[in-house]
Write a structure and sequence with these properties.
The protein has about 700 residues and is mostly helical. The chain is about 60% helix and about 0% strand. The chain is built from 31 helices and no strands. Helix 12 (about 230-250) packs antiparallel against helix 13 (about 255-265). The longest helix has 30 residues, at about 5-35. The two termini are about 80 Å apart. Residues about 550-560 and about 620-690 have low confidence and may be disordered.
Length: about 700
């Protein structure tokens, strides 16, 4: 028999459970509108106790976890309760926030294979490209999304905001922005104004960026005040905008304004950690080599491991570089230099593309006066990165400082051989430096050949480099005495541009050495010196000037044609400085420079009186040394006794007159200070801290 009573009880219980679940969902809806997601989770758990397989409740729980920032919990629930094809957007977002980019990219590839094209997933794909610093791909995706999205939708402003951020990041990383991604000064929200300002920073239009950042700051404050934000929360929200404004001030040279902004941001409690890190780093860069211990403390905050997921790779590279630089500035002991080198080598393992770290390692040896060690380190680095301009030029500089132009030439030639593009290799700056090195090494023929090769290359291209190279060639030929060849080069330049005064002047200079008539012919083509510029030059006075004459010679009168005469001015004698109580009628004491105890008027007292009678230890005694033997005294001159001197003269009695030696009045030497003066150390080479 069927038990109708138990069935009715089950139906009643199910109905009651359904009513409870309905009421709980109403509570969830109310709590979501109030953004009380922790309470939402408690209500959802009650629903799942009644119905563990309720997909709506599970979905609400996933969203609540995401809103509370518990992305790992949300991901675990998604993988446990939903199939791979359900809630793809939520899974992708959790992967993104957990920085699991490989899993996220695999998920997006699988989703694309199903020919699905969801807007939210494409938005996440663009964000992944931005986060992994593939800015070109990010810009392209956002540009396509903007074309497909209605401007009246709220999501359009979000896409536009991120689009401007991706463009700014592309420019900051040194990339080129395509013309189709034109600038749009959208000021609908403060986020749009901020990201547009960042794009102008990338374009190096700092004036425009400063105006937009101030606009964004005012809009942010006004918007948050309308939403009843407290002043503390407003300051936290303004932190990122202020740090960027300080960065613009710093780039414009307004260091004091930038420091003031950074310090105000760091004083705010609860400030975003990434904004605090960037402000700390930029404050260290602004203060440079002052307040080093405070800078070290700030950089420790900026290099915290908690910031790895929040900062971009380029930002972390700059902070690591500044840490090593700070140790270089604190050059007080060899262990500090060793710590600087260790940190730089460790950073190179993570950022091998940063050439400045190689220079930092070489600088530590240079500051310890180990220049050979610096050169050997740079030579090793140049072998690893022959295409690096920074490393090779630093090596060349040290080789030239040690008077080794041949080694510098060899280094530069190796660097040029690593450049595959001829347009880069034959740039006028490179050619000029190579010619100068050949000249220093005495290889004039190679210098001329280099100039001719460069000139031949640029003739086949439509570029202004050809004219610049030809001018360098002609100038070098004049310097080396090849005047006819130089005149031919200058003639080519004058044919191309008859108004090129520099080429005409060079042609006149070349002809003046072997053909005066042609030189005078081209002189007339040169413009007047005093025409058009308001200059009044006396040519006659210039012709009378003789090279090497010093300023002590007087100018000659315009009426006189004689040569200038050197005037011998009498040296003024300085009056002697005398004491106020000095009386000219009283002659000075001849013993005034002697110590008191050595003066004839000195009277000893007490024990000193007895000592003066017997003489001090080591003093010379009349009659010779021990036993009156007539040995040498401490004055350094041999003293001969009267008996010996008489015997030497054969007993002849000679009348001797006593002559009193006048005491020379020489001023006493100044007492030397016992405290040894510290030598002033030379400053380290100026190395600029990097700003973010």
């Amino acid at each position: 028999m069927i038990n109708f009573s138990s069935a009715l009880e089950e139906m009643a219980a199910a109905q009651e459970s359904k009513e409870v679940i309905t009421q709980l969902f109403k509570d969830v809806e109310r709590l979501v509108s109030q953004e009380e997601y922790a309470k939402v989770l408690r209500s959802i758990d009650k629903i799942l106790q009644l119905n563990p397989e309720d997909n709506d409740a599970l979905h609400c729980k996933v969203i609540s976890y995401i809103r509370l920032g518990k992305y790992q919990n949300a991901l675990e629930l998604l993988q446990k309760s939903f199939s791979d094809e359900n809630l793809i957007s939520e899974k992708a977002y959790c992967f993104y926030r957990l920085n699991k980019f490989d899993e996220l990219l695999n998920l997006l590839r699988q989703y694309k294979l199903g020919n699905k094209n969801e807007l939210s997933l494409r938005h996440i794909e663009a964000q992944v490209a931005y986060k992994t610093e593939d800015y070109n791909a990010s810009v392209e995706i956002y540009y396509a999304l903007l074309k497909e999205t209605d401007k009246n939708l709220d999501v359009y402003n979000d896409i536009l905001t991120n689009f401007n951020a991706a463009k700014a990041a592309l420019l900051f990383s040194g990339g080129d922005l395509d013309a189709k991604y034109a600038m749009m000064d959208s000021l609908d929200t403060y986020e749009l104004a901020y990201n547009t300002a960042c794009t102008y920073i990338g374009l190096k239009d700092y004036g425009k960026a400063e105006k937009l950042l101030n606009t964004a700051k005012n809009m942010c404050r006004k918007s948050l005040l309308s939403e009843d934000y407290t002043e503390d929360k407003i300051e936290i929200e303004l932190g990122t905008i202020k740090v960027q404004l300080g960065y613009v001030y710093q780039l414009q040279g307004k260091i004091s304004e930038a420091i003031e902004i950074y310090q105000s941001v760091l004083k705010v409690k609860g400030m975003d950690v990434s904004a605090s890190a960037i402000a700390s780093n930029n404050l260290v860069a602004a203060k440079k080599d002052t307040e080093l211990f405070d800078s070290a403390r700030k950089l420790r905050v900026a290099s915290s491991k908690n910031l790895d997921a929040k900062l971009f790779r380029g930002q972390k590279r700059v902070i690591a570089m500044n840490e090593a630089l700070l140790l270089l500035y604190m050059h007080k002991a060899s262990r500090v230099y060793a710590a600087c080198q260790d940190l730089a080598r460790k950073s190179l393992q993570t950022y091998p593309e940063n050439d400045d770290l190689y220079l930092l390692i070489a600088s530590t040896s240079f500051l310890q006066k180990k220049i050979n060690k610096s050169i050997s380190d740079l030579q090793e680095f140049a072998k690893q990165k022959p295409e690096s301009l920074h490393i090779n030029f630093a090596l060349m500089q040290l080789q030239l400082l040690t008077s080794n132009p041949n080694n510098a030439l060899e280094t530069f030639e190796k660097h040029l051989s690593s450049i595959k593009d001829d347009k880069q290799r034959y740039k006028s700056g490179y050619v000029g430096l190579l010619v100068w090195l050949y000249e220093q090494s005495g290889m004039h023929d190679k210098a001329v050949k280099t100039l001719e090769d460069a000139g031949t290359f640029w003739k086949n291209t439509s570029s202004n480099e050809s004219t610049s190279i030809l001018k360098q060639t002609a100038s070098f030929k004049i310097k080396t005495g090849r005047y006819q060849e130089a005149a031919q080069d200058y003639e080519q330049l004058v044919k191309v541009d008859p108004l090129d005064t520099q080429a005409i002047a060079g042609l006149v200079s070349a002809y003046s050495h072997y053909d005066i008539e042609k030189a005078e012919k081209y002189v007339n083509s040169l413009p007047e010196i005093n025409s058009g510029d308001g200059m009044d030059i006396d040519v006659d006075s210039i012709e009378k000037l003789v090279p090497g004459i010093k300023k002590s010679y007087k100018k000659t009168d315009n009426k006189s044609d004689g040569p200038s005469q050197k005037t011998h001015t009498k040296k003024r004698k300085r009056k002697p400085l005398l004491p106020k109580s000095y009386d000219t009628s009283i002659p000075p004491d001849p013993e005034r420079w002697l110590p008191k105890r050595e003066r004839s008027t000195f009277k000893a007292k007490g024990k000193r009186k007895q000592l003066m009678k017997s003489g001090s230890q080591g003093a010379a005694i009349a009659g010779g040394g021990i036993g009156g033997t007539g040995s040498a005294n401490i004055a350094g001159k041999s003293v001969v006794s009267e008996n010996q001197s008489a015997a030497a003269s054969g007993g002849a009695n000679t009348a001797q007159q006593e002559s009193t030696a006048q005491h020379q009045q020489t001023p006493p030497k100044p007492k030397s200070d016992n405290k040894s003066k510290k030598k002033k150390k030379k400053g380290i080479p100026p190395v600029a801290f990097s700003v973010i």
